[in-house]
């Protein structure tokens, strides 16, 4: 659930490695053809408990001062009942429904009707119509890359309203936070259900569909590889980036405005969370064309995992730091604040430069310099489903000689920085770092399993040359 989350999201930054040939092995692309008992149990667990986890965190902030243990203790000791907690939870409102519907429609209009113009005047930015990777069925989809433009327009309008127009309060998101949660759930379940029905009855590309015969697995992990409506509305690209990730920075700004309203000032911790997470979001949209070649687009199908996850999990759990700081304003000492800022910036640098090195290596077929030297490579060979033999190269220089997924390491450093900005008073704001550690470790292992099957002995030579996955000397 990542986008962003998301991604979430998180949540969207993992280079795909299985799609260099015309077609990938049918046993390797996408999700599983058959479902083992562990996968099915995991799917049912997530379908059952992920919505409850989101509700529990938001409820804890609303009713229990961000404590994660007090609700459990109160329920165990009889001080509270589930019915009491539910009764205190704000329901969906007409205001929230109108606000959320307007938001989604606005993002759809920006996505569909306004071709990108940022690439015309921003040096180095790749926007406009771009091609994605070759799908297993041999299809190359085209995408309208305009996420940066949508983000800029949305935030310019937000700041114009906050300082000149005054149509609504900058705290509007916080003030409707729980009613908006129900609206996000409605959209998440609706789009996931529609995607499943579409996969059965009118898929965009029947050759890129997978059916297991298990309803729960099909619903969660998706059937269609790239479901679309019309020529341009791509479900994966839209819901992975918009509306959740565009909203991420607006949500943080609304939390900062609420902290200002309640306490008379915005703390340096709130500023750090806003700045560091804004860097992450802007990086996502600046590199949206590169994102077309990542594991989310090149490997995952579109089901509840992405549909609901991008609508609910990403915007509600990736923003817990800002939500926490509304009611627990933390003013960091200068050394603490500088340390958090440096950790976040260094983590971002490692993440971005590691991805840049791999992208440069791929674009030039190794005819480039990494850290001032000709890159070292492991020559690999693999077979596609049509029996053809293909050759590839694995980079073992630069950050990719330090660890096999050192871009993830930089990502985790940034995730920890967000959390450390909140001090050490509660566990709740540290959920993001814990979740990202689990998510990226799992993705690391999943990606390596596919690569081991794909490259065979060549992969063994690669792991011998670069023995660590994430943390040199440890893992």
TrEMBL record:
PANTHER family: 7-DEHYDROCHOLESTEROL REDUCTASE, DELTA(14)-STEROL REDUCTASE
GO cellular component, one term: endoplasmic reticulum membrane
Transmembrane parts of this sequence: 37-58, 97-114, 148-168, 180-201, 332-351
Extent of the signal sequence: none
Pfam families: ERG4_ERG24
Protein name: 7-dehydrocholesterol reductase
UniProt record similarity statement: Belongs to the ERG4/ERG24 family.
Annotated PROSITE patterns: STEROL_REDUCT_1, STEROL_REDUCT_2
EC numbers on record: 1.3.1.21
Gene name tied to this protein: Dhcr7
Involved pathway(s): Steroid biosynthesis; cholesterol biosynthesis
Superkingdom in the source lineage: Eukaryota
Coiled coil: none
Gene Ontology molecular functions: 7-dehydrocholesterol reductase activity; cholesterol-5,6-oxide hydrolase activity
Membrane topology, as annotated: Multi-pass membrane protein
Subcellular location: Endoplasmic reticulum membrane
Presence of the UniProt keyword Endoplasmic reticulum in the record: yes
Catalytic activity from the UniProt record: 7-dehydrodesmosterol + NADPH + H(+) = desmosterol + NADP(+); 5,6beta-epoxy-5beta-cholestan-3beta-ol + H2O = 5alpha-cholestane-3beta,5,6beta-triol; 5,6alpha-epoxy-5alpha-cholestan-3beta-ol + H2O = 5alpha-cholestane-3beta,5,6beta-triol; cholesterol + NADP(+) = 7-dehydrocholesterol + NADPH + H(+)
Alphabetized UniProt keyword annotations: Cholesterol biosynthesis, Cholesterol metabolism, Endoplasmic reticulum, Lipid biosynthesis, Lipid metabolism, Membrane, NADP, Oxidoreductase, Steroid biosynthesis, Steroid metabolism, Sterol biosynthesis, Sterol metabolism, Transmembrane, Transmembrane helix
GO BP: any one term: cholesterol biosynthetic process via lathosterol
